[in-house]
Amino acid sequence: MKEILVLYYSVNGSTAKLASLIARGIESVSGVSARIRTVPNVSTVCEQTESQIPDKGVPFVSNNDLTECIAIALGSPVRFGNIASPLKYFLDNTTNEWLLGTLVNKPASVFTSSASLHGGQEACLLSMMLPLLHHGMIVVGLPYTNSALMNTQTGGTPYGVSHYAGSNNDKPISEIEKQLAIAQGKRLAEIALKINL
Asked: What is the pTM of this model?
């Protein structure tokens, strides 16, 4: 069974919920499964580090996950229109994979969640694509042939699925956002399998 890495960082759970829906879309495709991983927080105290194994929940990502998986779905909450620092910190430490070409020609997609409706979702999605492009990955978006993309009132872009969580994280993922997340996972899996015949 080939695996696709669903790598995300989430603080209040919205990005984690999108990751789960993307994984559902991935696993709707025969012959592939989702490997869900997260990243540890970045400490503001240089001497303090988080354990390599989380106390509970989703396992932390390792660089081996990048090597072993045939594609990546990358998710982050919006931080001032940019990727969250814990996920950026992990990506900044993938120089060895870059030198070896580990990710070249692997498909990748991105997803995000923000507290405000115009909180920089598309800018964040684009910022996540930059390191993936430097790694030589093939970025997979959401085409407008997916009719849900034309009907969304909350989140969703051709760059990748997004979610408007609200300033109190009180807005549930809408039915259209769910459809888009599942469709994105399915499309990523289908393309990954075509590339990895």
From this structure: 0.93
